[in-house]
Amino acid sequence: MINGRILFNLTLLICSAQGFVLARDLPPAFSPGQIGPGLFPTIVAGLGVLAMIAILIGDLRNGGNAPSSPIGRRAGLGAIAIVGLLIGYIFLIALLGFRISTALFLFLGITVCSLTTATDQTERSLTPKSFGIAALTATVITLVTYSIFTYGFGLNLA
Amino acid sequence: MNVYVDSILLLSDLRVVLAIAAGTILGLVMGALPGLTAAMTIALLIPLTFGMPPIVGIGMLLGGFCGAVAGGAIPAILLGIPGTPSSVATTLDGFPMARRGGAGRALGIAISSSFVGGMIGAILLFLVAPPIAKFALKFGPAEFFSLGVFGLVIIASVSGGSVLKGLFAGLLGLFLATVGSDPITGVLRFTGGQPALITGIALLPALIGLFAVGQVLQDLTSVRNENKDAGGANDIANAKPYWGVLWKAKRIVAGSSLIGTIVGAIPGAGGSIASFLAYDQAKRFSKTPEAFGTGHDEGLVASETANNAMAGGALIPVLTLGVPGEVATAVLMGGLTIQGVRPGPALFDQQATIAYGIFFAYFIANIFMFLIQLFGIKIFVRVLRVPPKFLTPSILMFCVIGVFGVNGNFFELWLMLGFGVLGFFLTRFGFGTAPVILGLILGSLVESNLRRGMLIFDGDWTQFLIRPISATLLLLSAVLLGLVLFQRRNDGEPAPNEAQ
Fold first, then answer.
1. Interface touch A68/B410, C-beta < 8 Å
2. What ipTM score was computed for the predicted complex, to two decimals?
3. Whether A36 and B171 lie within 8 Å, measured CB to CB
4. Tell me: the pLDDT tens digits for A31-66?
5. What are the residue boundaries of the structural domains of chain A, listed by start?
6. Is residue B268 within 8 Å of residue B216, measured between CB atoms?
7. Rounded distance between C-alpha atoms, residue A84 and residue A79, angstroms
8. How far A30 CA sits from the closest chain B CA (Å)?
9. pTM of the entire structure?
10. Cβ–Cβ of A37/B184 closer than 8 Å?
11. Which of A129, A155, A4 is closest to B430 using CA atoms?
């Protein structure tokens, strides 16, 4: 059965093999006795392929289901949403600048985390009050952080 | 003698003192939050140090390292959840003591034990590191190549769920280190036409991605306990130094400090092993072994002394050989490299003032760690009550600031995200992230010395095997790898997530 572990192993195996092929295409050494730019990455990628094959066989022998803590649906969706927000945040910094994009990211991030990290049912419910707290927190953190890093540490967060 | 005076003068700058204090405070806060590791603390501190002179930045990183190791005791005592892996043994006696209403006493003993252990570790670092570095000055390309291999084998053997997976992670790091312009021929390797990759994969996005973003994703998907019940958190008025307890347990203090420093200096051993080993020894030689695990002073003293002494010991291989033995020091080494410091034997020869400055800064960081905990313990206890819903997005925001704020490069933000996702899966499936970063750091050392060696030895690769130091290091790598594989085979491989 193909599960996440086996899929990840296969991805790494394909990447290692691809790295091996690319490394073999690099030019050879300029003079005898020297090592060319391709030899070291070729050896590393080759060893990587061998190691990955051994890992894959080992995991397949274990049925690919060596115990790992299962990710709950809510927690999994939360992690995906956070990665999605991070992608949006990186795009928005270019478009809207640091302050607006950060405030938006924090507001949405707090809202997503409220839904996914709280164990208490009442804390998971979204009310106007919780939105208000999220918005206020996001604004305060953004402004304080911006001020500290721009004026205190001299970083350019335009 | 001059070098000592020069390094003390270097530290007399008020900015250095303030940076160490700030780093220590941030380290304590991060260490006090379960799930936030010392490695993550240092990774997040690195960007702040960019605009600082090297010794100021280094002071901040050392403060963060010290603070994060010590801060782990706070949740271990109050919640029974170790803030960092090195404080796992602290929960055994710290938490029961807090549950009995002795939270203040437990915190007080932990604070004073951490201080004493940290100072002894710092003294041993000061005494032991220079002779090791002097010896390592004899190293040539063959020895450095073998040292790099040794470092990778060690960290790969201990950091992942399985040795093979750890080795693969190390190879991945080595491969990623070859991205960019070849240092000898100038040929571009694996850049995919991306100009930002010509100089190679930047260390900072990799560090922050693997150790901060990856850790956040890991925390989001793992079962968490809400930090509502900080057992006895209100009873912290007694959090004062317990010198009498330490004096009474002076043999335990001495033994645990020594164990901590030695274990810390052994690449790959780490803080949790140090504190458990010290705890076990203290219990073995105690007159009241039955009291261990019920809230016993001696158990707490042993664990906290050892894990803080370990921090000093862990700096020995980093500074003298340029080989970090565990995750936090691997990240710290990355930070030092970014600051223009080249850890390794030459550090004591070419940057002696900085090297001794690091020693003295480490002493100061330990003193600050003690004073700040003593007077600010109430604040650090409150940190435990910060809900994760505010913490998670804030940490990610700091990650973005850390990478973007330095040079405004969007490509590095994508790189950070990529490394974050990679780090999440590597951790989840038992590969570990420490070997990747170590491979990335040691990659150029290993490759350049291999190529330089082959050039010097006229293509005779057997020189790597017959030179005594090089041969010893390679033999040690092989023996260690064999031993670990043999032991794991006998014990059965641990489940990938257990290793984390």
1. no
2. 0.91
3. no
4. 766 788 889 999 999 999 999 999 999 888 876 555
5. 4-61, 73-152
6. no
7. 9
8. 9
9. 0.80
10. yes
11. A4
